[in-house]
Amino acid sequence: MSGYYQRQSLELQTHETARHSSAAPTLHRTNTTSSQRRRQQRLSQHRQESWFRHSMPPAISRDFESLEYLTQETGNGLDEQLAASLGGTLPGQSHTSIHLNSANSNLGFIDSDTSNTPITPTSSSVAGTVSSCQAAGPGPGPAPVEKSARRKSRNRKDSKGSILSNALAARGLRMTTSFLRNKRKEYEDEEEFPSSVGFDTDDGEKRIIAINSPQPTKYCNNRITTAKYNCLCFLPSFLFEQFRRYSNCFFLLIALLQQIPDVSPTGRYTTLVPLIFILSVSAIKEIIEDVKRHRADNEINHRLIERLVNGQWTTVRWSALTVGDIIKVVNDSFFPADLILLSSSEPQAMCFIETANLDGETNLKIRQGVPATAKLLETKDLQQLEGRIECELPNRLLYEFNGVLKEYGKPAVSLGNDQILQRGAMLRNTAWIFGIVVYSGHETKLMKNSTSAPLKRSRVDKLTNTQILMLFMILIALCITSGLCNLFWTREHAKTAWYLGIGDFVSMSLGFNLLTFFILYNNLIPISLQVTLELVRFLQAMFINYDIEMYHAESNMPASARTSNLNEELGLVKYIFSDKTGTLTRNIMIFKKCSIAKQIYQPERTPEESALVQNILRRHETASDIEEFLVLLAVCHTVIPERKEDGSIIYHAASPDERALVDGARQFGYIFDTRTPEYVEINALGERKRYDILNVLEFTSTRKRMSVIVRTPEGGIKIFCKGADSVIYERLATRNQDYREATLQHLEEFASEGLRTLCLAVADIEQDVYEEWSQTYHKASTSLQYRERKVEDAANLIEINLRLLGATAIEDRLQDGVPETIAALLEAGIYIWVLTGDKQETAINIGYSCKLITHSMDIIILNEESLDATRDVIHRHYGEFKSTTANDANVALVIDGKTLKYALSCDLRGDFQELCIICRVVICCRVSPIQKAEVVEMVTQNTKAVTLAIGDGANDVAMIQKANVGIGISGVEGLQAACASDYSIAQFRYLQRLLLVHGAWNYTRISKLILYSFYKNVCLYVIELWFALYSGWSGQILFERWTIGLYNVLFTAMPPFAIGLFEKFCTAETMLKYPQLYKPSQSAKLFNVKVFWIWIFNALLHSVFLFWLPMAAYQSEAIWSDGKTSDYLLLGNMVYTYVIVTVCLKAGLITNSWTWLTHVAIWGSIVLWFTFVLIYSHFWPSLKFASNFAGMDIQLLSTPIFWLGLFLVPITSLLIDVICKLVHNTVFKTLTEAVREQEITRNDPSQVLNESRSS
User: Fold this and answer.
1) Is 232 helix (H, G, I), strand (E, B) or coil?
2) Residue 283 in contact with residue 243, Cβ under 8 Å?
3) Which residues contact 441 (CB under 8 A, 6 or more apart)?
4) Which H or E run contains 666?
5) Are 1192 and 1178 in contact (CB under 8 A)?
6) CA–CA dist 955, 953 (Å, integer)
7) Which CATH number fits domain 552-584+814-994: 3.90.1150.10, 1.25.40.10, 3.40.50.720, 3.40.50.1000?
8) With DSSP H G I counted as helix, E B as strand and the rest as coil, what are the percentages for the chain, rounded to 5?
9) CA 626, CA 594: separation in Å to the nearest integer?
10) How far apart are CA 620 and CA 37, in angstroms?
11) Can you quote a single GO CC term (predicted)?
12) H helix runs in 172-271, sequence order
């Protein structure tokens, strides 16, 4: 029954649509002022469009507005797609008739002068049509057949084609001026009325700026503040930041509990003073840094700028500017706010800017004012400018700006990224510019982007926090146990030990006793650990920054640690995700070859020597195609030429590819030498030619192409288009494509050589069609809502019916040392994935060149056209691997971006990930930046392994921030990736030293530092628990209270620093020569839950020896020859001395690399304690302080029992450690220890490593 109602509904909608389709042109031609009639028309069109789109399957309807996406998804014509989606086959199958041409006209895709062609789905298919709209995924795809890269390229010409061109050729349809008018009208309607998604354009969604008149609303001033604090908020803000750390909150709680009378056994200030000291150090650091920020802010806010006020130029501070001000900026000056460029000293309102502060790119960029304001060169002209600017609200998108200039009595003018001058950029090579402020202060794009990078924490930190929580639970258990024991002991001895005064309320209170023991045992958690870690990590980062081996002299670029929180994470990396261009390669492009009219040409020493120029001069039959090819290379770009004094020309380009293409044209005698906003001039083999630039359709990562519409010297209009073969071939006309097959073969040859390829095509445009399209494009470019989509849609309309000219091949050579680095990283057990936007063939060839793929590897190539086909092939390959026992197959997986989209879908993601993890190498081709991030996130979240992403461009920022560790290459594409990264290096080869040396060392150092810090605290403070057995569980302390507080911050502070800074198990040369030594750190063998609790048990064992051995020696109490005795504090100082000696010797026992600083730290700590005893013992009575320590030096150093214990107790405590170490290094020797032994004996470790491989 439900199917019947669905069929009836579809029939009604179909007939209504046909009626509206025929009536819509009449309504468009009617010139009426009736708002009611206009609204009815729009509602009618909206209903028609809504039904037409909802009658399609979701896969088509979802992307119906984007022609480009539609062309990528299918090779059929538009009508065929819709007919197939509705279940139609051939006319004559009656039930429901849909006039597609009329519908297409109203939808703004094609127009026809022919009669409507009905496509009639069968009755049985209509219900399926509606139900298919509700399907959750694409329909069934082709059979799952694994295809090679060569086969894919060969079949591309048959499987893909331009929707419009196929439709036009097949049905005689053509783009007409009426269609373009309808499209333009659609844009107008979207601006005036709510869109189909319900977005209502109003003043609240855009900024309106009045020119030379009061502003309609008050905007943000131009004063900026980057400082964190001021005099009023410093103390509360600083304390809030500090006490967000759990450790500080814990010690603050202890300090507060110590203030309760008769509760603290250690005094009132033994925790408070160290805590205040640590907070004071942090506060001083914050104050110094914030004062620097305040000074920098004041220097910037007090800079001077000229502002137009009442027809006069007045010098004001930057902070005094506001939105709507017209200002003058001179050469080599920073822009004080985000400005709209009005005019400049250069012709056509051009200017050059440097955006290094914004994106790190040092190459100059061109900006140009619109023609409507280019002639405002005088003050009076600026004063007479009246109108308003409408633009988008402030946002953080550096490369996007949408606005409209509406002068009174003049047509609206589009404002885009070419007219915006952003705060932080600098004016270069231009005497002056006039601009109007659109965003000021903290609303500028620079300040909007001043946000901190996502916080990343290392695995070691996370594990440490977990173990701290476990220790805290043990501390609570010890407190409860000790409190109960105190309660029982007090009840039992209250009468017999009446002289102790233990019958009072405090002594009998379990609550008070719990607080006492909580304070007594709190030092099980080291108070100095966080400070020690921060300082050590900071100095480790300095080691990275000043490593001369990672300094690139050619670019004067050292390595840079932008964060120190992840130093040890560098030693745990399991997966590396790398970009290709600029990361593995140099990103220095060289024009190598080109394919024109079935022939391959190469540049020679001079243009005349090349066969290409000879064919032009001899007027070969392909001469016209060759000339048009070279003109396209010399004209279709955004390169800026700079002529030097010696007459040479330097090209400034936004990308190395564009520079290489223009240089390639120059090598063949077509020299581009002049650019203005309106035209370009070239020297074509000695003949000057001028091409008027009508429109530039810029390259984007979505479009993957760039087009320029020009007026030729002959007066005709042409569109020159260059881009990836996958998008150019889709837009070719079906006729007169003589070079299609040959060019495809040449593309495969170029790609197999590792060359980057582009296809070049051209089309002639009729004058009337261009004029209509120009108005459509203008309307799209002046739209504030969905401008990017509309502009792309309008560009799709003109980039059709192209004629293929040929292809280019550009070489991007590998960086020095890339093959050796990749081989070393693979040997270290690291999996390397390459995520690139290049062609599949190019990526595979680069994989061979850099030794990522070896000839012994099997290669799995996934190039599927549908979700079902992708599912089948992934399940098939995964099943084959699953049936084998190998966990790590010697296989390389290559997948393209389209198949990756299906593989990352919800139901396939898990199986795809398992397949990838089994493979040794994974290469993803033709992937977008968001797909890179998705792949990294998938592996990071599901494998729980440490991932590292490395790239050099803005398109790599997303994956760099998703990975556990992000590495930026400071390369040709600027510093955007480096600025978003955790560490930056100049060359890929430095990654080997960063991971295998610094990473492994830092992991070892931090691991030992943390373990040792917990060891030494447990070793001392658990002794208080053993002493409680003899003190009636009273909470009496064994040690002097200030020695307890100084234990971490003075007497045992230096050994952890020595371990954290200078420990290493092998030299850097050995680590680089034998990458297998990275595996112990990679597998986290030095710091895990098991190792942590072994160290805690070891500390407990040592504390037993350190307490009971002196206790046994002190049993007779008379420890001097004259029979004199002392109190418990002498025992405490003896034990304290033995503890310091033992923990310092323990530090030496775990140290592999001894430097003079290590000696100072270990032996100096012991000497420091004895010096303290000698000085502190004489404070009283000169200072009214430490009365119970008076004369302690004489008592302690005069008894032979102390000196005997100083020799025996530490040795006895560490004897088990020494035995275990000897057994381990003899019987259970690891590879690292074996190599270290070979280093010490100055033997070659190769034999040991070869034995390890064979075993």
Assistant:
1) coil
2) no
3) 220, 221, 222, 223, 224, 337, 447
4) helix 656-667
5) no
6) 5
7) 3.40.50.1000
8) 50, 15, 30
9) 10
10) 62
11) plasma membrane
12) 177-192, 234-242, 246-257
Q: Among 1016, 992, 1000, 984, which residue's Cα sits nearest to residue 1145?
A: 1016
CATH number belonging to domain 586-812: 3.40.1110.10
What element of type H or E holds 541? helix 529-545
The count of C-alpha atoms lying within 13 angstroms of the C-alpha of 789, restricted to the half-sphere facing its C-beta, is 10
Mode of pairing for the β-strands spanning 670-675 and 649-652: unpaired
- Kindly state the tokens that stand for 902: 């299906």
Q: Is 202 annotated as a binding residue?
A: no
- Amino acid at site 923: I
Alpha helices in 546-650 (DSSP H): 611-617, 623-635
Per-residue model confidence as pLDDT tens digits over 1241-1255? 888 777 777 665 544
Residue 455: pLDDT band with limits 50, 70, 90 = low
Does 552-584+814-994 match 321-449 at the fold level? no
Contacts of 925 (CB under 8 A, 6+ apart): 836, 837, 838, 839, 840, 843, 894, 895, 896, 897
- For residue 1200, whether the previous peptide bond is cis, meaning omega lies within 30 degrees of 0, is no
Q: What's the CA dihedral at 708, 713, 714, 720 to 10 degrees?
A: -20
Model confidence at 141: pLDDT above 70: no
Q: Which amino acid is at 1171?
A: T
* pLDDT higher than 90, residue 954: no
Distance in angstroms (rounded) separating the CA atoms of residues 865 and 1196: 85
CA–CA gap between residue 133 and residue 60 (Å, rounded): 10
274 to 93, 277, 531, 1046, 1183: CA distances (angstroms): 90, 5, 12, 8, 21
579 part of the active site? yes
Please report the pLDDT score of residue 454 as a whole number.
Answer: 62
Q: Does residue 890 register a pLDDT over 80?
A: yes
Rounded CA-CA distance 777/1166 in Å is 81
Nearest to 806 by CA among 652, 975, 624: 624
For the domain 321-449, what is the CATH code?
A: 2.70.150.10
Pull the structure tokens for residue 330.
């001179």
Residue 387 β-bridge partners: 211, 407
Query: Phi/psi at 186 (nearest 5 deg)?
Result: -60, -40
Instruction: Report the percent of the chain where pLDDT is more than 90.
Output: 36
Between the CA of residue 568 and those of 246, 275, 1003, 1006, 1090, what are the distances in Å?
Answer: 22, 27, 4, 7, 19
Query: Would you list the domain boundaries of the chain?
Result: 226-303, 321-449, 458-525, 552-584+814-994, 586-812, 997-1221
* Residue 634 CB contacts under 8 Å (≥ 6 apart), including other chains: 662, 665, 666, 670, 671, 672, 680, 682, 684
Cα 65 from Cα 70, distance rounded (Å): 9
Nearest in space to 577 (alpha carbons), one of 922, 815, 823: 922
Both tokens of residue 32?
Answer: 């009426």
CA angle 413, 416, 421 (to 5 degrees): 115
Q: What number of other Cβ atoms are within 10 A of residue 43's Cβ?
A: 12
| Whether the Cβ atoms of residue 116 and residue 101 lie closer than 8 Å to each other | yes
- Residue indicated by tokens 């051995």: 1109
| pLDDT value for 1033 | 85
> Which residues contact residue 756 at a Cβ distance below 8 angstroms, ignoring those fewer than 6 apart?
581, 589, 657, 809, 810, 811, 812, 838, 839, 842
Q: Of 579, 625, 812, 868, which one is the catalytic site residue?
A: 579
The number of beta carbons lying within 10 Å of the beta carbon of residue 851 is 15
Q: What backbone phi and psi angles, to 5 degrees, belong to 1167?
A: -65, -35
Task: Give the pairing type, strands 338-344 and 432-439.
Answer: antiparallel
Average pLDDT (1179-1189) is 83
CA-based max dimension of the chain: 127
